Design the sequence.
């Protein structure tokens, strides 16, 4: 019953306490020597040379979305490949359909010109 | 002349002929053809409805019954029939049909086709109300009659037509909303929507009370019973003449008919319980209608308010709950349809000429348009109940019934009759007599042959009913008797002597 | 390892629609690029329509043969078949509306029709799901497709706002739904409705789970107080989409709601009062708010909220009678509501950037300009108001009958009073059409195209005749409901 969920609750509590400690302790005990350089924002270890709030070309998003789509496709294929011996022809046909649908999506994206940068 | 018409589904024919005519109109372009088809359909419908008289047997039972299971899961049937109570109301409807078409021959300027279609389907709706013996079928026709009249008023009416049309629609719909729920409630209790079966199923008094109240509300708004009458002056005054004639002639009778057909036989105990209350409202309506009519400046609203008084009188007959009262109510419903119909037609005719209906605009018409004036006098006399004309028979029978039921009702009702004579005669005197001093009236044309033909059938009937009332009462009485006996048997307390 | 046996007859109509969606996606690339846009659009629409018709045939063929399910996740009983039919009907009518509406503002035809078909698939699956996760997935399929379709008119600010609002609130409601499903799973250890029915404890977890599911359904059905998105979304979405989703989403969600409630394992008395109150609130609020609208689409949006309320009466009334009444009402509603939206779509000013929305003034003097169209619109509106002998009246008759038969008399009374209130705003449009003259505010997109004309004709025939020939149809629906309620 509800007692079965106790470990879950404990996990929550532990996580929360840990996070709280990680945030509060450094500000209490850490040394503070602020200077101008330290207060600059950084980007991947570099001092940014433009305003961070600039607009990205929309193509980045397009590529990112397409990447996720077809990347997940491959993720699905790993467990399928492991079990293929057991699934036999049924599995093959099923994956065929799966790929077909994705292929249609691929053709669509391709013909729409989404892979072209300009 | 005898012909066996029982093999033909006569009622269905009467009911659906106008719809067929309306459909035909969609394929016609020429205005004159449209008018001809509409008139021909209406006349044919009237002739067919006369077939009811040919094969009539003077019993109190339902005749020409047609029954067909329509929606099996709910046991709803297409169940039609007429008895002495509905017979003349059906005939009145089919008679007024051709008359209003003929009246509207020249004075509908726009969308003649739509106008005629509406008149035709309206007729189907009204005949359906008077002949349905299944509660759902009845309700469908009852609500359906709103649509054509709404558009007739709203499109072809007078200045405040939109207001009047919407008010008419919402009032009636609101009134019948509870009726539908109660019909469903009855179905829950008895498993039937059928009028004949329901009559044979005794209902619990509490259910009767609520059912009666819901039905009575719907019917009282239609009649209209004081204080539910406020839609009527607007609708009557703003409607085009044809619409006013149908409204006053038959639509209001649907309310009276509803009381007779449903409230009385289905809920006898509740009827007995509420009869005095309704009588009180009816009397209030008679006096109120008469007093308000007295001060009207517009002839049409005068006639409209007089309708409230007249129908209050009819309701008085209904709640007398005796042979004379009920028979008188049925006959007087028909009379009122004829005479008020004729009055609205004549008001319309003078309005077509002068484009005003103000009483002060008229005077001395007798000198200029004698035919009109003579006919108007006859119509008014019929309306106020001059002996020898139809109104007298109806009013007298009702008074006898009311007298038997309660003397005070009869006395107050008589006062109403006197009032009615007063306001109508005063109005007519103002219009017809005196000097012809308004220059606009000096060029008036008298009635055309068409207009005379519109009125002649009605006037003939005034005399026919007035001189030979038994032709009609013989057919009405058996049905009323059956109704009263049925009620007496079903009610918990016996009320017949 | 046992390989799953799949009975494809259970999902034939859905498979057909999915296949059509895939074909439609690629159809744009067939043929010369020079093909003018409307022609190409019509070709794509035709393929989509063909798919819908085929699917409907498959659904009809499946009637009377309650089929086994796929791993107990989907069921193809008659209830599901009728749901498919009503969704496909709504979809076909909506598609005919889009036929000439779409090329007015966009060149993205393939996308539109493909998404449209996917929404159809989602709805069909939703009404056939007997398992909460499947239910959720189909709900998401239809929702995501509709989010995009709502914002399809990209030139319009209102469309973007509508899509965003729909998306945010929809996602929010999905969260409620999935949380409810999780609680029910926690209670019973299964997401299959059959298992839930058998094992539900009837305690706090069941009730809380059910309540959260109800909230999720409430959003989709636009039940007050979860209706806030409806007017904006219905107004911002392209009119054909609005017409389709106002019927399709409701149909799917109502049938699914029936399935969930049947399996709830909670006594009828527990939820019926809640549903009755929701129905009352929904009808009343929808109708009162509709009284004050000046935009035709917004008015119909509030009216559709009210109609959801009427149908909730059927749900309150319970299984057999209520379900058949709701099914009948859905068909009637598909005809009359899409018909009304079809006429509204003709009253909108076209254009990419223009504020396309039709105010009720656009209908001014319509009778003088196009008599037949005005008459048809009046028939749709009167049917929505529930005036006999139109389909809407019979729909309400059966709903209220179901309510009275199961003892909910006050609910039937509330419903009737609401019908009267609603008559006022429907009449307002007829007043403008018939009883005023045209002026500069009135508008009509012309000429009337064949596709729109066909949609209007079908809707009108349905509205006129569905009620009059209701007998056999109602019997069929009643049997489907009985088969479901008895199972």
Sequence:
């Amino acid at each position: 019953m509800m007692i079965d969920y106790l470990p879950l609750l404990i996990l929550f509590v532990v996580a929360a306490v840990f996070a709280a400690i990680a945030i509060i302790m450094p500000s209490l005990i850490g040394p503070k020597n602020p200077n101008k350089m330290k207060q600059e924002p950084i980007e991947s270890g570099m001092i940014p040379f433009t305003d961070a709030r600039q607009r990205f070309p929309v193509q980045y998003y397009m590529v990112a979305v397409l990447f996720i789509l077809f990347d997940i496709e491959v993720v699905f294929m790993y467990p399928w490949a492991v079990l293929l011996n057991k699934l036999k022809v049924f599995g093959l046909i099923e994956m065929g359909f799966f790929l077909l649908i994705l292929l249609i999506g691929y053709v669509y994206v391709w013909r729409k010109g989404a892979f072209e940068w300009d | 002349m005898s012909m066996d018409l029982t093999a033909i589904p006569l009622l269905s024919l009467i009911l659906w002929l106008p719809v067929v005519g309306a459909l035909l109109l969609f394929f016609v372009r020429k205005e004159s053809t449209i008018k001809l088809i509409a008139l021909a359909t209406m006349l044919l419908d009237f002739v067919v409805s006369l077939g009811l008289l040919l094969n009539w047997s003077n019993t109190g039972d339902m005749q020409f019954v047609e029954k067909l299971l329509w929606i099996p899961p709910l046991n709803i049937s297409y169940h039609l029939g007429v008895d002495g109570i509905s017979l003349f109301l059906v005939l009145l409807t089919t008679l007024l049909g051709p008359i209003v078409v003929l009246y509207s021959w020249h004075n509908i300027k726009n969308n003649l086709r739509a106008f005629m279609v509406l008149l035709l389907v309206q007729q189907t709706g009204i005949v359906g109300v008077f002949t349905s013996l299944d509660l759902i079928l009845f309700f469908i026709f009852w609500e359906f009659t709103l649509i054509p009249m709404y558009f007739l008023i709203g499109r072809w009416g007078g200045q405040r037509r939109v207001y009047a049309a919407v008010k008419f629609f919402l009032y009636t719909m609101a009134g019948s909303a509870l009726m539908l729920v109660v019909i469903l409630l009855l179905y829950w209790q008895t498993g039937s929507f059928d009028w004949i079966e329901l009559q044979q199923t005794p209902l619990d008094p509490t259910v009767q009370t609520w059912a009666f109240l819901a039905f009575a509300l719907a019917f009282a708004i239609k009649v209209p019973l004081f204080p539910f009458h406020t839609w009527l002056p607007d609708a009557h005054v703003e409607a085009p003449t044809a619409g006013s004639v149908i409204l006053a002639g038959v639509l209001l009778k649907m309310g009276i008919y509803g009381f007779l057909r449903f409230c009385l036989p289905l809920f006898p105990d509740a009827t007995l319980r509420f009869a005095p209350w309704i009588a009180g409202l009816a009397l209030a309506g008679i006096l109120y209608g008469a007093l308000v009519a007295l001060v009207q400046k517009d002839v049409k609203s005068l006639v409209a308010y007089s309708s409230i008084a007249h129908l209050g009188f009819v309701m008085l007959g209904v709640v007398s709950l005796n042979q004379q009262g009920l028979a008188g109510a049925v006959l007087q419903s028909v009379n009122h349809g004829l005479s008020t119909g004729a009055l609205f037609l004549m008001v319309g005719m003078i309005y077509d000429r002068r484009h005003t209906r103000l009483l002060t605009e008229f005077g001395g018409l007798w000198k200029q348009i004698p035919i009109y004036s003579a006919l108007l006098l006859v119509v008014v006399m019929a309306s106020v109940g001059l002996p020898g004309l139809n109104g007298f028979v109806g009013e007298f029978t009702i008074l006898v019934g009311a007298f038997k039921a309660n003397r005070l009702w009869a006395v107050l009702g008589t006062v109403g009759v006197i009032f009615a004579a007063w306001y109508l005669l005063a109005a007519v005197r103002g219009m017809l007599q005196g000097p012809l001093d308004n220059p606009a009236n000096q060029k008036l044309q008298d009635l055309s042959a068409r207009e005379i033909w519109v009125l002649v059938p009605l006037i003939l009937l005034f005399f026919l009913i007035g001189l030979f009332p038994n032709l009609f009462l013989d057919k009405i009485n058996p049905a009323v008797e059956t109704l009263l006996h049925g009620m007496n048997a079903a009610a918990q307390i016996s009320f017949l002597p | 390892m046992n390989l799953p046996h799949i009975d494809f007859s259970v999902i034939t109509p859905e498979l057909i629609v999915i296949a059509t969606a895939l074909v439609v996606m690629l159809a744009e690339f067939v043929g010369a690029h020079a093909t003018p846009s409307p022609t190409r659009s019509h070709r794509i629409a035709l393929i989509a329509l063909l798919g819908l018709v085929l699917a409907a045939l498959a659904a009809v063929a499946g009637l009377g043969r309650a089929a086994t399910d796929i791993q107990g996740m989907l069921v193809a009983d008659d209830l599901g078949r009728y749901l498919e039919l009503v969704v496909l009907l709504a979809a076909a009518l909506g598609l005919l509306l889009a036929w000439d509406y779409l090329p007015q503002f966009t060149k993205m035809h393939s996308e539109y029709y493909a998404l449209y078909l996917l929404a159809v698939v989602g709805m069909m699956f939703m009404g056939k799901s007997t398992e909460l996760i499947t239910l959720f997935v189909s709900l998401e399929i239809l929702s995501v497709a509709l989010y995009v379709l709502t914002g399809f008119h990209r030139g319009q600010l209102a469309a973007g706002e509508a899509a965003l609002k729909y998306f945010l609130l929809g996602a929010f409601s999905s969260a409620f739904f999935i949380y409810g499903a999780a609680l029910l799973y926690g209670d019973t250890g299964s997401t299959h409705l059959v298992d839930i029915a058998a094992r539900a404890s009837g305690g706090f977890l069941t009730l809380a789970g059910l309540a959260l599911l109800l909230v999720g359904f409430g959003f989709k059905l636009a039940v007050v107080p979860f209706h806030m998105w409806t007017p904006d979304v219905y107004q911002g979405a392209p009119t054909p989409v609005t017409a389709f989703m106002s019927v399709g989403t409701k149909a799917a969600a109502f049938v699914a709601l029936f399935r969930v409630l049947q399996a709830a394992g909670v006594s009828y008395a527990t939820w019926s009062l809640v549903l009755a109150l929701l129905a009352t609130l929904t009808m009343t609020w929808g109708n009162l708010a509709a009284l004050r609208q000046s935009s035709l689409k917004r008015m119909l949006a509030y009216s559709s909220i009210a109609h959801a309320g009427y149908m909730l009466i059927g749900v309150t009334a319970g299984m057999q009678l209520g379900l058949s009444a709701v099914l009948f009402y859905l068909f009637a509603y598909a005809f009359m509501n899409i018909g009304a939206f079809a006429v509204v779509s003709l009253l909108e000013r076209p254009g990419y950037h223009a504020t396309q929305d039709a105010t009720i003034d656009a209908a001014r003097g319509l009778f003088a300009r196009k008599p037949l169209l005005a008459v048809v619109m009046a028939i749709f509106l009167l049917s929505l108001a529930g005036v006999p002998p139109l389909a809407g009246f019979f729909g309400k008759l059966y709903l209220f009958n179901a309510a009275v038969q199961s003892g909910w008399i006050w609910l039937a009374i509330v419903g009737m009073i609401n019908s009267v209130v609603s008559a006022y705003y429907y009449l307002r449009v007829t007043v403008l059409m018939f009883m005023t003259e045209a002026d500069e505010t009135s508008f009509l997109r012309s000429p009337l195209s064949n596709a729109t004309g066909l949609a209007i004709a079908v809707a009108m025939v349905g509205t006129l005749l569905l009620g009059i020939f209701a007998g056999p149809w109602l019997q069929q629906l009643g049997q489907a409901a009985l088969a479901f309620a008895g199972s």
About this structure: The longest helix of chain C spans residues 157-188. DSSP finds 19 helices and no strands in chain C. Residues 26-486 of chain C form one domain. The mean pLDDT of chain C is 88.
